[in-house]
Design brief:
Elements (H helix, E strand, L loop, with lengths): L15 H4 L20 H7 L3 E4 L6 H8 L4 E4 L8 H11 L3 H22 L9 E6 H4 L4 E2 L6 H8 L3 E2 L12 E2 L1 H7 L3 E5 L13 H12 L7 H4 L3 E4 L8 H10 L9 H13 L8 E2 L3
Parallel strand pairs: 1-2, 3-5, 3-7, 7-8
Antiparallel strand pairs: 4-6, 8-9
């Protein structure tokens, strides 16, 4: 909303997640519960004209209840790279912000075109094999990765990598894989994502990320991989509309020789300060490429 310069007064309620994002300034907005299970009664009290949800959440049953009140439910994601532009254009149309959206997408796609041009030089046999893991579950001893068509499957491919879980068809978007499977695939790079407890807007130092990287090195499974032996273990936690910058980080990590002049953090800083209109703070990636 901030990116499209939609006035805050247009927003009558938010999920608990949105309410707690420090740079959005939505702390005082009424909370309608979790984005997965919103409180339909609370939504009804607020009398919105429309509710913006994720594409797949909440459930169809909950959506139907909301729409039965005469409230339009509009599903958008922003975390699927292939639908990112389309999703933004849908929201821009709702709020009559088409010109602003076009300006932003032109800037965003100029940065992304750099990847397309340079990654064309990478031969298929030279592409790095990537294991992308959910940080939260790793800490619980579970290896949860990202199947074909998932958000990180798309991001890895756009960054010129091969998603090792891209062969896991007919499974949930974030399937659990076994220790044996991980060892057999021997990833050349490991990317830990959804690392909100160690990276983000309020993170002042990288000590937690450094400690977790050390834990991964000692892990009886991941410690045996080429990714660990070659020091190719990375951490990311960029969400929302700025998530496209994860493509830039991954591309520079995977192929540093092709992107010596690329500064992903500078692009992220410009996203916050020029487009979202908020000061750039925090630590979002480790290590900085």
């Amino acid at each position: 909303m901030h990116l499209l310069q939609v006035p805050d007064e247009v927003i009558v309620g938010v999920s608990d997640t949105a309410q707690n994002v420090p740079f959005l300034g939505l702390k005082e907005k009424p909370c309608v519960g979790k984005w997965t299970e919103p409180n339909v009664e609370k939504i009804a009290e607020l009398k919105p004209e429309a509710v913006l949800t994720y594409g797949k959440y909440p459930s169809k049953e909950t959506r139907d209840k909301i729409e039965s009140l005469g409230i339009k439910v509009i599903g958008i994601d922003f975390y699927y790279a292939e639908k990112y532009d389309q999703d933004l254009q849908i929201v821009a149309q709702i709020f009559s912000k088409k010109e602003r959206a076009e300006e932003f997408l032109q800037w965003k796609n100029k940065n992304m075109s750099l990847l397309t041009e340079r990654l064309a030089k990478v031969k298929p046999e030279e592409k790095i094999k990537v294991l992308c893991l959910w940080t939260y579950y790793f800490k619980k001893g579970i290896y949860k990765t990202f199947a074909p068509g998932s958000s990180y499957d798309q991001i890895i491919k756009l960054a010129g990598g091969i998603n090792l879980a891209g062969e896991l068809n007919n499974l949930p978007e974030s399937p659990e894989v076994s220790s044996e499977w991980v060892i057999s695939k021997d990833p050349g790079a490991i990317v830990m994502v959804y690392s909100s407890d160690i990276l983000g807007y309020t993170t002042n130092d990288l000590q937690d990320a450094i400690r977790l990287k050390d834990e991964i090195g000692k892990n009886p499974v991941l410690g045996k991989t080429a990714a660990v032996s070659k020091g190719k273990v990375y951490f990311l936690n960029i969400s929302g509309l700025g998530r496209f910058v994860e493509n830039l980080y991954m591309a520079k990590w995977f192929y540093p020789q092709l992107f010596q002049d690329l500064n992903p953090e500078q692009v992220l800083k410009e996203y916050f300060e020029k487009w979202v209109g908020t000061p750039y703070k925090g630590k979002w990636a480790y290590p900085e490429p």
